[in-house]
Amino acid sequence: MTVTLYHYWGSTCSRKARMTLNEKGVQWESRHVDLHVFENWEPWYVDIHPNGVVPALDHDGRIVYESNAIMEYIDDTFGGPSLRPSDTWERAHMRIWLDKSEHILHKNMHLISHNRAHAHRWEEYEKIYGRDKLLERVHSQPDIQRRKDEIHHAEHGIDEETIEFSIGRIDEQLNLMDRALGEHQWLSGTTFSLSDIAVLPFVERFKVNGMDDAVASKKNLTNWYEKMFARPAVERAYAFTNPADDTC
Length: 248
Description:
The protein is an alpha+beta fold. It has helices at 12-24, 43-46, 67-77, 88-129, 131-138, 144-156, 160-183, 194-216, 219-229, 232-239; strands at 3-7, 29-32, 56-59, 62-65. It folds into two domains: 3-83, 3-Layer(aba) Sandwich (Glutaredoxin), CATH 3.40.30.10; 88-231, Glutathione S-transferase Yfyf (Class Pi), Chain A, domain 2. It has a four-stranded mixed β-sheet with strand order 2-1-3-4, covered by helices on one side. α8 (194-216) packs across α9 (219-229). It starts with a strand and ends in a 9-residue tail after the last helix. The relative contact order is 0.14.
């Protein structure tokens, strides 16, 4: 059996996949896809993931993509502790948080990260490639909606009103998380599950982007966050560093 994860070291969704593999005790091979040189838009990778994003999972030649689907596939396919609650109410709430992780947390964190980090990176890219070449590379993004958004962000940036809305939207979800974690040990109930894995990278990214106080002010969320990073599987997932920084 061969399991290969196509991923990027700092990607929130790649971290979700790495944590899930580690929690299940799956031995996996790493194939790092360098987003900084647009390797994810190369034809060979688009053949694997038609949207040209990470992660993607290759299990004996069978490809699974989209991080939430990858997480569920790993839990369904491999041994080890189940990462989905047996209680039907808890399992329903796990699915609610999986949906929120993608359609609220990921969506809004992407906008915040663009202005806080990616915008500076685009300036560096423009110096390296030149504006015309950079836009040509962006046009190679295979997903039509993502291509449209990337071009708009590259040319116009993201206005502060949109950023403030996204910050408020995420803080709203953090408050809901804090309330849930005041009622039970884990996000969806009494059982550690995929929902805990799914939201952690976005809480961490929110802190990294200067909103640490918004997390620190929520006691239950803070306790959960510390408990999550005490898990060996989480620690290993975050210990994966950029191979480009390896001087060996």
